[in-house]
């Protein structure tokens, strides 16, 4: 491998060294979770970004089909690029050109070496594109650009700015990648190049920890690669509950709308936690979930605090119809208050039954698909490995919770709205007419 590491941040170099040492010692690469824990990072998205950057720079190769699929590359081709000045990612400033220094960058994907130069970024109008104040952008010299490309744009009296460019009728729109900033419209724009690489500012230790940065990295990773797909984002399944509220395809869309000054998320209707677990695990946000269903909340307490104990008890159970039916009947008696279980047994029985059934949990029926031994083994291993960050779940009514958190960001995912005269649904349980807490949910009261 080349000894020239100028294009790596301090953290990227540390991660690369850790991977190399781990492989030398164990014969296999570490998992993303092991990297996250070793460096005490708050979110998996940060690990993904570092690994993707190392792969783009040809320091490593990654096999996405296996969990320990990272290999260290032997050689890397580099080139020298001049840094000729500063560019604003904000209000335009006079375009100044002077050679400050040269930097060494990965040459992969670049041709005609003399066609590139670099600029130091000042400002934060492009943070949603992962370009932060103090970064260096590598520019390919060209006078034309496609809609949506990030360009060095010269406007007015030789003023330069870094923006995404769009041609609109008889004018150009220079669009910042920051929701707090407005676009610039001009009839005449001179393009002096297109951004082809971003080099993170080593001295700025807080850039990679911003919510805007984490959102960008995560959303880029889950964006659908199928141009014919009707879904903008891929399904995200991080909850250990088999049917986590059906929100797994909505994760990307919800995170898109999350304000970038969010510090803590309060969820009055936690349920299966598809969205909330992603906010905690991928973005490193503190999440407090609430639900009125006490049996569910009891399960979450053990899942969050003692996942390995849950795993141990679930491992003792067999995924077969006889065991399933026995547990289902016990849970029905618990629901009818005929018997009482200790909290651990109740949590084990609940998640066993819920994850192996069709229909409404312990009022449903066994699924031959989920009674498969290999599938069951994978399911309980997910329960064992569940390692959320800054997540807790408590049992409470939404009315009390909203009053309790007047200044926090609320993510509200209430029960489905069902007409009062509907014979198809009562509560959440189809065709069962079982009066649970979802019956007659006051949607209007929540709205007001």
Written overview of the protein:
- The model is unreliable at 1-6 and 423-437 (pLDDT under 50).
- The N and C termini lie far apart (62 Å).
- 31% of the residues lie in helices and 21% in strands.
- The chain has 448 residues and is α+β, with helices and mostly antiparallel strands.
- The radius of gyration is 26 Å and the shape is globular.
- It has 3 domains: 10-72, Arc Repressor Mutant, subunit A (Orthogonal Bundle); 78-199, Umud Fragment, subunit A; 251-410, no CATH class.
- Belongs to the peptidase S24 family.
What labels would you give this structure?
Umud Fragment, subunit A; Arc Repressor Mutant, subunit A; four-stranded parallel β-sheet; alpha+beta; globular
Question: What's the overall geometry?
Answer: globular
> What's the N-to-C terminus distance?
62 Å
Number of strands: 20
Could you name the ranges where pLDDT drops below 50 across 5 or more consecutive residues? Answer: 1-6, 423-437
How many domains? The number is 3
Computed Rg: 26 Å
